[in-house]
Write a structure and sequence with these properties.
Layout: H1 7-14, E1 22-32, E2 35-48, E3 52-66, E4 70-84, E5 89-102, E6 106-122, E7 125-136, E8 141-142, E9 145-146, E10 151-164, E11 167-181, E12 203-217
Antiparallel strand pairs: 1-2, 1-12, 2-3, 3-4, 4-5, 5-6, 6-7, 7-10, 8-9, 10-11, 11-12
């Protein structure tokens, strides 16, 4: 699976840049399913032809904290594709490699998510809204820790708040809610063999909140008030 996540990087390097390609750099902070983080975020958005778009985002968090397991760093690499069916509505598919290394453990896992996406100027602010079905794919026992088997939903809202000089300000928020499994005993909870009913992993509902503030450039004054 990790090798598959290299493909978005290669694709981004080979796609012809459209006249409206966008670069974004800034900061990120959040609390995600038992992890808190703060770091830097860089994004490349590449529309090509009128109906397709490819986006690549990397978020590095040198301030990663996982309850019980300690502090360290983390990285998220996300590749996103969009097919615009109409000028304001499309479908998106995403793959994400998430990894972290804290005091007691280090691991990585793969998520996939996708769904409908809308873009419009709302109250004068160019806005993009995405609704996703979210699922963890790379499940198992990693460094002695059982993955969460996350399944849930996510909403992502990105707003161009305004422009000055040669750049614009973009604010992006992501909210997720999903079903996860707590840690169990892999000897009897089905990870390594038969499931003993009294030993089965317990399910619960968890959530995440992530926010990014980024500088978007180059600034294009003729289209900065239009949906992106």
């Amino acid at each position: 699976m990790k090798r598959l996540l290299i493909l978005p990087v290669l694709l981004a390097l080979t796609l012809p840049l459209h006249a409206q390609h966008r670069y974004l750099v800034g900061g990120s902070v959040g609390d995600s399913f038992n992890n808190t983080n703060a770091g830097v975020a860089a994004t490349l958005e590449v529309p090509f032809t009128r109906h397709y778009e490819f986006d690549l985002t990397d978020i590095f968090s040198p301030l990663e904290s996982k309850r019980v397991y300690g502090n360290g760093n983390a990285n998220i690499l996300r590749g996103s594709s969009i097919v615009w069916i109409t000028n304001g509505f499309g479908l998106t598919a995403n793959a994400e490699l998430s990894s972290y290394k804290v005091t007691q453990i280090s691991k990585s896992t793969v998520y996939v998510f996708g769904g409908p996406v809308w873009r419009s100027a709302i109250w004068g602010f160019p806005t993009r809204i995405e609704l996703h079905y979210l699922r963890e794919m790379d499940n198992g026992i990693i460094s002695g820790v059982e993955t969460q088997h996350l399944q849930g939903g996510q909403i992502k809202v990105s707003i161009r708040m305004g422009c000055f000089s040669k750049t614009c300000i973009r604010v992006t928020e992501e909210y997720a809610l999903g079903h996860v499994l707590t840690q169990g005993n892999p000897v009897c909870d089905g990870s390594y063999g038969p499931v003993v009913p009294s030993c089965a992993r317990i399910g619960k509902i968890g959530g995440s909140v992530e926010a990014m503030i980024q500088f978007e450039f180059p600034r294009r004054k003729d289209t900065e008030d239009l949906a992106f």
